[in-house]
Design brief:
The protein is of the alpha/beta class and 276 residues long. The protein has helices spanning 17-27, 46-59, 78-97, 119-139, 159-169, 180-185, 225-234, 254-272; strands at 3-6, 31-35, 63-70, 102-107, 143-147, 174-179, 200-205, 240-243. An eight-stranded parallel β-barrel has the order 1-2-3-4-5-6-7-8, surrounded by five helices.
Length: 276
């Protein structure tokens, strides 16, 4: 399994999108994961895209995955849903331009806490949208890993709903991304991943020191990361591992946090025998 750094590590810091790539490479990560949008005030203009692509190419530092937040897939306005689907296809094209073969998609919440528009209707909107998006991804050889978020009204909020949704979509290019912190927050034990099996194509790797949703350097908290990796090994997964740390205290220490995240992750992966 390859070890990547996800670029949201730099949110809230003075490190720009290009410098972040260079630092991650120098620290020792195998690859890098990006967001294909303007995020947290960080622009993604054509000039920024080119600089990022050129830097990764010059360093021989591949783009492991690209993350897309899937807002508006369940909007009750059909035109908005169609526009969102077209926009997501554009993000897939951008990921393809970066040479990535994996998109991480994050479906968000039901409208109005599942009122006004029936939840099953909203669910079906998302299913239909992902089939169309999956068709486009397939033409480019890209797989989509859908991620659950540990919020009450999220479409996907645990492993069980991920499995249910993937079964409903039934598309060979639409698979799963698993976040180990999210599993911990919703009390999904490591063994729960066996329900997804080899449909897991990517992992968000981080830690937290309590029941809250936080993303600290791996090995610094209480998430059973070693057991999680052991389950991946058991099911024969070749998922990529993406360290996802964000909104850390003392952002001026981000270089230190990133190095700690790399060392903690590499140590755990080596102990389980899944690095490489």
């Amino acid at each position: 399994m390859q070890l990547a750094l996800t670029e949201n590590a730099w949110w809230g810091t003075s490190v720009d999108r290009v410098e972040g790539i260079k630092i991650a490479h120098d620290v020792g990560f195998d690859s890098y994961a990006i967001f294909t949008q303007d995020v947290q005030g960080r622009s993604f203009t054509p000039e920024v895209k080119k600089r990022m692509r050129d830097t990764m190419k010059d360093l021989g530092f591949p783009c492991a995955s690209f993350c897309v937040i899937l807002n508006s897939l369940v909007d009750w306005n059909e035109d908005i849903r169609k526009t969102t689907i077209a926009w997501v296809k554009d993000q897939i094209d951008t990921g393809y331009d970066f040479g990535s073969k994996k998109m991480i998609g994050v479906p968000t919440e039901y409208l109005w806490e599942k009122t006004e528009v029936k939840p099953e209707v909203q669910w079906n909107y998302a299913v239909e949208a992902m089939r169309e998006i999956g068709d486009h991804a397939k033409t480019l050889g890209i797989e989509i890993g859908l991620e659950s978020e540990p919020y009450k009204n999220n479409l996907l909020n645990n492993i069980e709903t991920q499995v249910k949704f993937l079964d409903a979509v039934g598309h060979p290019s639409v698979k799963a991304n698993v976040d180990f912190v999210h599993m911990h927050v919703v009390h999904d034990p490591p063994s729960t991943m066996e329900k997804l099996g080899k449909r897991i194509i990517n992992i968000h790797f981080a830690d937290t020191n309590g029941p809250d949703h936080a993303h600290f350097p791996p090995g610094s908290g209480i998430v059973p990361l070693k057991e999680d990796l052991q389950v991946l090994k058991k099911i024969g997964s070749n998922a990529s591992i993406g360290v996802e740390i964000e909104n850390l205290p003392e952002p001026q220490r981000i270089h230190e946090w990133v190095k700690q995240a790399y060392e903690g992750s590499a140590k755990l992966m080596d102990e389980v025998g899944v690095r490489g």
